[in-house]
Amino acid sequence: MKFNFSILLAAAAAAPQALAHYNFERLIVGSTVTGEYEYVRRTTNSNSPVQDVTSNDLRCNVGSFGYAATTKTYKVTAGSTVGFTIRDYIGHPGPLYAYLSKSTTANVNTYDGSGDWFKIYELGVKDFATYTTSMTWLSDGFKNYTFTIPKAIPNGQYLLRGEHIAVHGSGSIGGAQFYLGCAQLEISGGTGGTPKPVGKIPGIYSATDPGIYFNPYWPPVTNYTMPGPAVYKESIDNVAIHNVVYKRTVASILDSSDNCVVES
């Protein structure tokens, strides 16, 4: 009975894979939804994921640096609400993130993302699995998401990176899928500070991290370790639980208002 149930869960997750791919194509600032790839670097990867955690493509997606020069840079104030639209919607299970990286060049249009990155937002598990139900995620079905730019950061030009890690194939090494995109920002009004922890991309993930390589179907998943660095402490309003391990007793982390935005 247990074996059959795990097979059913795996089959149900695999069935819509061809239709469930998605990408991050529009920047959201407040209630404004910008144009498609107007402030987000276009990718040559269509709506397909990156699966090699050692690849430079994990920064902003395949071919995106080739579009950096023609991508606009949005001027925002630290403390503003920003986010991404997701085309068509998040169709796979897994955690949702946002990262910032301050440009190491004078113009973010020439920045390849090789500098330091820090996490400013994360959204994880809603309900853990039982013997009769599968694990669910707070980002299931999202068409967009928003979060706050922390105030305690230096002013300057940044890459804002949205990412969703799809874990339906995480039972094999290299099976996790990374859906991502980068917007170009110029941030003012920051109070300074030294965001941490920071890491390089590639480098923040390993193919064998417990939140990237695990069996999502059987036995029932009763805890989950969020991959990557902890959220920058000045961004703690963007996540209700700062502990990287989400306990089984947690039913929800953020309410549905975090998935509410005016769409164009």
UniProtKB/TrEMBL annotation:
<keyword id="KW-0119">Carbohydrate metabolism</keyword>
<keyword id="KW-0186">Copper</keyword>
<keyword id="KW-0503">Monooxygenase</keyword>
<dbReference type="GO" id="GO:0004497">
    <property type="term" value="F:monooxygenase activity"/>
</dbReference>
<comment type="similarity">
    <text>Belongs to the polysaccharide monooxygenase AA9 family.</text>
</comment>
<keyword id="KW-0964">Secreted</keyword>
<dbReference type="GO" id="GO:0030245">
    <property type="term" value="P:cellulose catabolic process"/>
</dbReference>
<keyword id="KW-0479">Metal-binding</keyword>
<keyword id="KW-0136">Cellulose degradation</keyword>
<dbReference type="Pfam" id="PF03443">
    <property type="entry name" value="AA9"/>
</dbReference>
<protein>
    <recommendedName>
        <fullName>lytic cellulose monooxygenase (C4-dehydrogenating)</fullName>
        <ecNumber>1.14.99.56</ecNumber>
    </recommendedName>
</protein>
<keyword id="KW-0624">Polysaccharide degradation</keyword>
<dbReference type="InterPro" id="IPR049892">
    <property type="entry name" value="AA9"/>
</dbReference>
<feature type="domain" description="Auxiliary Activity family 9 catalytic">
    <location>
        <begin position="21"/>
        <end position="224"/>
    </location>
</feature>
<keyword id="KW-0560">Oxidoreductase</keyword>
<dbReference type="InterPro" id="IPR005103">
    <property type="entry name" value="AA9_LPMO"/>
</dbReference>
<dbReference type="GO" id="GO:0005576">
    <property type="term" value="C:extracellular region"/>
</dbReference>
<keyword id="KW-0732">Signal</keyword>
<keyword id="KW-1015">Disulfide bond</keyword>
<dbReference type="GO" id="GO:0046872">
    <property type="term" value="F:metal ion binding"/>
</dbReference>
